[in-house]
Amino acid sequence: MRGGFRWLSALVTIGALAGCAIGPDFQTPDLAPSATFLPGGDPGFLVHEAAIDQSDHPHEWWSSLKPAKVRSLVEYSLIHNVDLEAAAASVRLAQANAAVQTGAYFPSVTGAFDTNRQKIAQGTVVSPLQSNASLFSLSTAQLNIAYNLDWLGGVRRAVEGANAVVDAQVYQREALELTLAANVATSAVQEASLRAQIDVTKEMIEIQQRFLSVLQRQNAAGQIGQADVAAQETALAQTRLLLLPLEKQLELQRNLISVLSGRYPSQRPPESFTLRDFRDLPTIPRSTTSDLLRNRPDIRAAEAQLRASNAAVGVAMANRFPQITLTGQIGSSSSDMSKLFSANNGFWTLAGGALAPIFDAGILANKQVAAEESYHQTLAQYRSTVLGAFQNVADSLRALQTDERMIEAARAAMESANRNLSLVRKQVEGGQVSLPALLSAQQAYLQTSLTKVQAEAARCADMFALLQALGRPWWPSPENHTKIVMQAQAVK
């Protein structure tokens, strides 16, 4: 019996160590390593006048946000957001499934115990006991061992695919984390923009109210007609109408920030934001296309999914070959419970078998074809993800370039409108009333002021979009991968 189990142990060891895994070995696609983000090799805002030491930058771009209340809102959201909690559970689910696949490396061992009391028919059936007793009790205890010999590496390919799915879930959670951070920061910017637009509108209401008071006095003195007063009242009423939608949008924006940070709408975050809070935006380190390809989590996730599809091809190929199974039993049986484990009552069996497909109407062959086509589909999706990543960065760079010009143009237009409004104010106060000029000057000042606020907010939002598009260009991916796994295991 001992010799038989040594033989079984040797076969198990050989099955685990011998042979190479069937199917293609995965190779990471090398796509567009020298491509640039913008036409003509324009680096946009990724290259500054001086190179920036990447070691000076924190792992998360939001760690450098100022003031602290902006950073604290993002960090609070990353802890309490329910979508991130679900993503962490997806990581743990994938890890559990990978552990299930890894278990196929080892033999399965089950234990059984059976006891029964029976009577056999005398004169018809021979008693199994030496005493030939027809009424007896029989107890049996045994271990059953089964092992599927992974001689082609199909199990190894299955484990490889399961581990790739774990990686994909980890990177998808990281992508969600980056997206959430950008969305929270952008939502705070939008809140600040709405507050600034409300302030501008209220300022315009006060200016128009003062003009209306001057015109009313001049009308009372007989210097102007009632129509001029009515026209200014109409302009004032129209500006007041602009205030209500802005206040509504601000309330909705606060609701959005509450939900993003894992709160109910009634549980408003303590922070409130103005555009002054976003004057010091994070610095973008010098980056290259290879950094983007290496560090964007959605590209890493697509690569992991491609690795899983590649492993599935090996599994499908292995299933077309014979499956070798080793089984064994060891136990003891006795009619006397006290002597169940006596040396003479032991038994054992050792067996091996192979199950090979002979005819299946092409089912296994077509499963391999399906796995190969699934790989090609995933490869195309990987390429699409890479192209989309380049587009995200290019769009953000162009938007930032346009934002800078827009802010300068809006600032110049507002200053011009302010000078014009000051001149009209002097004319009105001096009794030299030109109602069309007054209405035009008020409208121009209001519009240019709102445009400047919106342009400043757009620059902040586009900067956060660029940070999201770059992934973590200064965060080494293996460190981040380990961090995400640990976070997913901790959030339960």
How would you summarize this macromolecular structure in one to three sentences?
The protein has one domain: Outer membrane efflux proteins (OEP) (Up-down Bundle). It is 61% helix and 10% strand. The protein has helices spanning 2-17, 68-80, 82-102, 154-220, 226-260, 289-295, 297-318, 363-429, 435-470, 477-490, and strands at 108-119, 135-149, 323-334, 346-355.
Describe the protein:
The protein has a single domain (30-107, 152-327, 366-490), classed as Up-down Bundle (Outer membrane efflux proteins (OEP)), CATH 1.20.1600.10. α3 runs antiparallel to α4 (154-220). Residues 1-18, 46-58 and 474-482 have low confidence and may be disordered. The protein is of the alpha+beta class. It contains ten helices and four strands.
Q: What's the total helix number? A: 10
Task: State mean pLDDT (0 to 100 scale).
Answer: 85
Low-confidence stretches: 1-18, 46-58, 474-482
Domain tally:
1
Distance between the termini: 48 Å
Helix content: 55-70%
Number of strands: 4
Please identify the top-level CATH class.
Mainly Alpha
CATH fold topology: Outer membrane efflux proteins (OEP)
CATH architecture: Up-down Bundle
In terms of DSSP E residues, the strand content is: 5-15%
Q: What is the element string, with H for helices and E for strands?
A: HHHEEHHHHEEHHH
Radius of gyration: 37 Å
Shape: elongated
Give the oligomer, counting copies of the same chain as homo and different chains as hetero. Answer: single chain
Q: Largest sheet, order of strands side by side?
A: 1-2-3-4
